[in-house]
Protein backbone atom coordinates (compact mmCIF):
# COMPACT_ATOMS: atom_id res chain seq x y z
CA UNK A 1 0.00 0.00 0.00
CA UNK A 2 1.37 3.45 -0.79
CA UNK A 3 2.35 5.66 2.10
CA UNK A 4 -0.65 7.30 3.76
CA UNK A 5 -1.09 11.04 3.88
CA UNK A 6 -0.51 10.88 7.65
CA UNK A 7 2.97 9.41 7.28
CA UNK A 8 5.49 12.24 7.13
CA UNK A 9 8.35 11.09 4.94
CA UNK A 10 9.40 14.48 3.74
CA UNK A 11 12.97 15.35 4.40
CA UNK A 12 13.75 17.69 7.26
CA UNK A 13 16.65 18.94 5.16
CA UNK A 14 15.52 21.47 2.53
CA UNK A 15 18.18 20.21 0.12
CA UNK A 16 16.95 16.64 0.47
CA UNK A 17 20.38 15.40 1.56
CA UNK A 18 19.16 13.56 4.64
CA UNK A 19 16.20 11.24 5.20
CA UNK A 20 13.52 12.10 7.77
CA UNK A 21 14.95 11.43 11.25
CA UNK A 22 12.99 8.28 12.16
CA UNK A 23 13.01 6.66 8.71
CA UNK A 24 16.37 4.82 8.88
CA UNK A 25 15.54 3.30 12.29
CA UNK A 26 12.07 2.24 11.16
CA UNK A 27 13.45 0.58 8.03
CA UNK A 28 16.16 -1.20 10.04
CA UNK A 29 13.47 -2.57 12.38
CA UNK A 30 11.53 -3.85 9.39
CA UNK A 31 14.54 -5.57 7.76
CA UNK A 32 14.71 -9.06 9.26
CA UNK A 33 16.25 -11.09 6.43
CA UNK A 34 19.98 -10.85 5.75
CA UNK A 35 19.28 -9.51 2.26
CA UNK A 36 16.96 -6.76 3.47
CA UNK A 37 19.34 -5.87 6.30
CA UNK A 38 22.29 -5.50 3.92
CA UNK A 39 20.29 -3.41 1.43
CA UNK A 40 18.73 -1.19 4.10
CA UNK A 41 22.09 -0.69 5.81
CA UNK A 42 23.64 0.45 2.51
CA UNK A 43 20.78 2.87 1.83
CA UNK A 44 20.80 4.32 5.33
CA UNK A 45 24.57 4.64 5.44
CA UNK A 46 24.62 6.46 2.10
CA UNK A 47 21.66 8.61 3.28
CA UNK A 48 21.66 11.02 0.33
CA UNK A 49 19.45 8.89 -1.90
CA UNK A 50 17.08 8.02 0.92
CA UNK A 51 16.90 11.75 1.59
CA UNK A 52 15.27 12.32 -1.80
CA UNK A 53 11.49 12.55 -1.82
CA UNK A 54 11.17 10.95 -5.28
CA UNK A 55 13.10 7.85 -4.21
CA UNK A 56 11.24 7.49 -0.91
CA UNK A 57 7.87 7.76 -2.69
CA UNK A 58 8.85 4.86 -4.97
CA UNK A 59 10.65 2.72 -2.39
CA UNK A 60 8.97 3.13 0.99
CA UNK A 61 5.54 1.60 1.62
CA UNK A 62 3.36 1.56 4.69
CA UNK A 63 2.01 -1.80 5.77
CA UNK A 64 -0.48 -2.20 8.60
CA UNK A 65 1.26 -5.34 9.85
CA UNK A 66 4.92 -4.26 9.62
CA UNK A 67 4.78 -0.48 9.47
CA UNK A 68 7.17 0.99 6.92
CA UNK A 69 8.88 -1.36 4.50
CA UNK A 70 10.95 -1.23 1.33
CA UNK A 71 9.28 -2.17 -1.94
CA UNK A 72 12.35 -3.35 -3.82
CA UNK A 73 10.31 -4.38 -6.88
CA UNK A 74 8.84 -0.89 -7.23
CA UNK A 75 12.32 0.64 -7.07
CA UNK A 76 13.60 -1.82 -9.68
CA UNK A 77 10.71 -0.91 -12.01
CA UNK A 78 11.44 2.81 -11.63
CA UNK A 79 15.26 2.64 -11.68
CA UNK A 80 15.48 4.03 -15.22
CA UNK A 81 12.53 6.40 -14.81
CA UNK A 82 13.88 8.30 -11.79
CA UNK A 83 16.23 11.19 -12.53
CA UNK A 84 19.49 9.64 -11.33
CA UNK A 85 23.12 10.12 -12.23
CA UNK A 86 24.93 7.07 -13.57
CA UNK A 87 26.70 6.62 -10.22
CA UNK A 88 23.43 6.82 -8.28
CA UNK A 89 21.80 4.28 -10.60
CA UNK A 90 24.74 1.88 -10.19
CA UNK A 91 24.65 2.22 -6.40
CA UNK A 92 20.90 1.55 -6.31
CA UNK A 93 21.48 -1.39 -8.67
CA UNK A 94 23.85 -2.92 -6.12
CA UNK A 95 21.35 -2.25 -3.32
CA UNK A 96 18.63 -3.98 -5.34
CA UNK A 97 20.96 -6.88 -6.09
CA UNK A 98 21.57 -7.36 -2.37
CA UNK A 99 17.83 -7.24 -1.74
CA UNK A 100 17.39 -9.95 -4.36
CA UNK A 101 15.19 -8.33 -6.96
CA UNK A 102 17.83 -7.21 -9.44
CA UNK A 103 21.11 -8.23 -11.06
CA UNK A 104 24.06 -5.87 -11.39
CA UNK A 105 27.36 -6.84 -13.01
CA UNK A 106 30.23 -6.70 -10.52
CA UNK A 107 32.32 -4.76 -13.05
CA UNK A 108 30.03 -1.77 -12.39
CA UNK A 109 31.95 -1.13 -9.15
CA UNK A 110 34.29 0.90 -11.36
CA UNK A 111 31.54 3.52 -11.63
CA UNK A 112 31.19 4.02 -7.86
CA UNK A 113 32.98 6.76 -6.00
CA UNK A 114 35.12 5.81 -3.01
CA UNK A 115 32.43 6.45 -0.39
CA UNK A 116 29.74 4.42 -2.16
CA UNK A 117 32.19 1.64 -2.95
CA UNK A 118 33.04 1.33 0.75
CA UNK A 119 29.33 1.25 1.61
CA UNK A 120 28.65 -1.50 -0.93
CA UNK A 121 31.63 -3.53 0.31
CA UNK A 122 30.54 -3.22 3.97
CA UNK A 123 27.01 -4.27 3.02
CA UNK A 124 28.35 -7.28 1.10
CA UNK A 125 30.43 -8.32 4.11
CA UNK A 126 27.32 -7.96 6.28
CA UNK A 127 25.32 -10.05 3.79
CA UNK A 128 27.98 -12.77 3.82
CA UNK A 129 27.61 -13.16 7.57
CA UNK A 130 31.35 -12.74 8.10
CA UNK A 131 31.93 -10.46 11.07
CA UNK A 132 35.72 -10.56 10.90
CA UNK A 133 36.35 -8.62 7.70
CA UNK A 134 36.65 -4.87 8.02
CA UNK A 135 36.29 -2.42 5.15
CA UNK A 136 37.92 0.95 5.55
CA UNK A 137 40.54 3.32 4.24
CA UNK A 138 44.06 2.01 3.83
CA UNK A 139 46.60 4.06 5.78
The DSSP helix count reads: 6
* Low-confidence residue ranges: 4-8, 10-15
Query: What structural class should be given to the helix and strand makeup?
Result: mainly alpha
Taking Cα atoms only, what radius of gyration do you get, to the nearest Å? Answer: 15 Å
Average pLDDT over all residues: 84
Structural overview:
With 139 residues, this protein is mainly alpha-helical. 46% of the residues lie in helices and 6% in strands. The chain is built from six helices and two strands; from the N terminus they run H-H-H-E-E-H-H-H. It has helices at 23-30, 34-46, 53-59, 72-78, 86-99, 114-128; strands at 60-63, 67-70. The protein has a two-stranded antiparallel ribbon. Strand 1 (60-63) and strand 2 form a beta hairpin. Helix 2 runs antiparallel to helix 5, helix 2 runs antiparallel to helix 6 (114-128) and helix 5 runs parallel beside helix 6. The model is unreliable at 4-8 and 10-15 (pLDDT under 50).
Amino acid sequence: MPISRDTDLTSSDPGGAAPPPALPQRLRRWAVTARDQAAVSALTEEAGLLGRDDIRLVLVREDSATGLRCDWSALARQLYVLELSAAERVFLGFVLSMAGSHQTALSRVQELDEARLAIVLRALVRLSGNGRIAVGTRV
